[in-house]
Amino acid sequence: MAAPLSPLARSSPLRPPLSSTSRSHLPFMAVAGAASSSASAEAEQDISRGRGVTKEAPIPQLEVIGSKRELLSQFASLKMSYRPFPFIGWNRHVETIFAAFFRSLPRVQFRRECLRTRDDGAVALDWVSGDERRLSPDTPVLVLLPGLTGGSQDTYVRHMLLRARKKGWRVVVFNSRGCANSPVTTPQFYSASFTEDLCEVVKHVLKCYPKCKIYAVGWSLGANILVRYLGQESYGCPLAGAVSLCNPFNLPIADEDFRKGFNKIYDNALARSLKKIFKRHELLFVGLHDEYNIPMAANARTVREFDEGLTRVSFGFKSVDDYYFNSSSSNSIVHVQTPLLCIQAANDPIAPSRGIPREEIKENPNCLLIVTPKGGHLGWVAGEEAPFGAPWTDSLLWNS
């Protein structure tokens, strides 16, 4: 249901064309965005004429679902078998934990901007220092949404950031309330259902760079929030494209698996990280009554206990099960009108394969799903930079 990496490792309106700097090196997101209108129109014509969509050659070892799978023929990395790194990639827990502890952490000099929200809350936006001077105003912007309790300090976030910058893109990390030392100014953090902060972040980026195209990448809980945002905004979404990685999608299923076997290790680690954020801002919650159970949240051993004591009450849900059911991004896929690539690992211990909304993705011409046979949760220790470098997904998205 959430990303275990941080606590384990390191406590469509019309847009102008892309800048010439980036046009010659379009990654998957931009290719999908550019092809969206024509590809979907052609697919609809084929279906209406009874011809169906042309079948592409199968991609070795990958499960691919979506009407735009023909786009994948442009990517050399998909023409080879997915090969997990020996030993590390053979077990989902070993891969998940190895990536959390031993993946390299690139050095990045950030410039932090604290954005005040409409409810008097605040989020922290980490931009790469100096890009405001080096890059042109029409440079495409990539917004990164880390997993639960994650932020700009996470290895998977920084590797993606470096890839995007090498292609000439502007990048900003959206650190949710309380994450990566983002300030908490109201008695409310964030949740799987909460899209308002993302709405304000996207509007703020457009205000700063009105001539740019905006894309977004989300991991784990950040991916769930991103997909919910895409479905919520639907036809009016200002994003040009998006990528969802290790999305739990169906939170009741994810919650069920999260409390089994070895997964309890991740559950306990995330609960400790949530409590750490809470205790730094505990005074904001003094005097709250209603259904709040502050002692339960402060002493939670599991994410579910923390959500029952605090999160579900903050966001107006009757119970934690009501919160999980109504916060699942699987319910949003049908409304997505923005080009969306979803990448999952079949053996993900936290975002179960059985929770992936395959049929909904198949029926939506704007969505494409790739499921790798291995990968763990935010691991994907495979490819040219394995085992210590960027995950396999980064080369897929940027080496086009």
Automatic annotation (TrEMBL):
Residues 1-21 are annotated as: Disordered. Keywords: Hydrolase, Serine esterase. It comes from the Eukaryota. The keyword Hydrolase applies. SUPFAM superfamilies: alpha/beta-Hydrolases. GO terms for molecular function: monoacylglycerol lipase activity; short-chain carboxylesterase activity. The active site is at S220, D348, H377. PROSITE patterns: UPF0017 (PS01133). Residues 140-378 form the AB hydrolase-1 domain. Belongs to the AB hydrolase superfamily. AB hydrolase 4 family. This is AB hydrolase-1 domain-containing protein.
